[in-house]
Amino acid sequence: MKAFDMEQSAWARFSSEERRRMEEYSAAYRRFLDTARTERLAAREIIRQAEDAGFKPLSEYTALKAGDKVYWNQKGKSVILAVVGSEPLEQGMKIVGSHIDCPRLDLKAMPVVEKNKIVYFKTHYYGGVLKYQWVCMPLSLVGVVYTADGRQIDISIGEDPDDPVFFINDLLPHLGKDQAAKKLGEAITGEMLMPLVGTYSEEEKTKPQILELLREKYGITEEDFTSAELEIIPAQKSREVGLDRSLLMSHGHDDRVCSYGNLAAILSAAPCAKTQVALFADKEEIGSVGNTGVHSSYFLDFTAEMLALQGRTEELYLRRALRSSEVLSADVAAAFDPIFPEAYEETNSAKLGYGICLCKYTGARGKAGSNDANAEFLAKVRRIFNDANVPWQVGELGKVDQGGGGTIAYIMANWGCDVVDCGVAMHSMHAPLEIVAKADAYCAYLAYKAFFESK
């Protein structure tokens, strides 16, 4: 491949052999997408692939040496993988941090309601969504329920082609005069996002019949919904888009396109002096909160446990390890969309198909809430990518006063790490179905692998 050129697409830079490998990678990524439909399923699949590659739980080790492959399972919803380097851990780590949660609709604690003999699920949307996008499309119900006696029951309805699906109604245009006069963000409210569950009953009420179906098929009662994590997601699996099949459509590209690149990279990267760490976090879409989000202590705990297995138990070593570490915050970026040019500053926007995107800062308006990576670290990352012939580009999140967003970068920077945002640019971010370019997804893998293997 040629040296970095902002005007040349990744596709144009790839040889025929590299294009073949890109297609193989895209097929593997689609299998991951269609399996890892929720953060729990993503964590499960990541651990399965890691164990197949020789990774073991950190708790099974009594000491660590170079080349050891370890993982940490945080409550079944976040995962950390690490390959121990030849240097002491306090000299720093190479970390790629991605997240495996994504915008969706969650069932409320008491979700089953009946209105005029029609039964619905009550939902609470998770993360930033445009609510009008969730109506009039086939939906699945996926997640877990814990019964009163402690049994875990996996739920999956709508994922198999023979399954029934769920559906959220919209108002017919013939009666939509008042709705059409509302602002786009007000025409569908959060409380209107109620999937249809059933209508048939020979009794006076329909809800008891629906609850009986759930009891017969899954052995759960209405009370069991209070100890459940059930998600409404599009029933549509991943598909290729365009006559040239250059794009991929799926639910959850944000941020599983970076997470899969992160996973594939750490499983295939050659070990090096620095310890290589792949983080797959939960709760990023709602502020990285809770004990599976990056604001909690588990990444620090994991690092401290590894240090202890190397005979370093004092807190000072933990602080040294973190402030000597380098991080790619692997989260998606906004690609310029010519249908909505007014939202972007084209000169500083990423483009579909032009490689991995480096974002010096995210945040909102005056960079509020941003990490704002330092120039020295950006220069080092550029050299790593150029030396490895990884197609890359730069971008930011739209016009300065248009809006904004954030990643986990600032949290890890608070630990003292050098951090820069580095992810796949996409269209229709946070929509039920999102778009990425195959070439960009593949470049994410190439970029993270090159970073893991760098000095």
From TrEMBL:
GO function terms (MF aspect): aminopeptidase activity; metallopeptidase activity; zinc ion binding
Pfam family, one: Peptidase_M18
InterPro entries registered for this protein in UniProt: Peptidase_M18, Peptidase_M18_dom2
Group of enzyme by EC: hydrolase
GO cellular component, one term: cytoplasm
Protein name in the entry: M18 family aminopeptidase
Similarity comment text for this entry: Belongs to the peptidase M18 family.
EC number: 3.4.11.-
Keywords carried by this UniProt record: Aminopeptidase, Hydrolase, Metal-binding, Metalloprotease, Protease, Zinc
Signal peptide (from-to): none
Gene Ontology BP, a term: proteolysis
Requisite cofactors: Zn(2+)
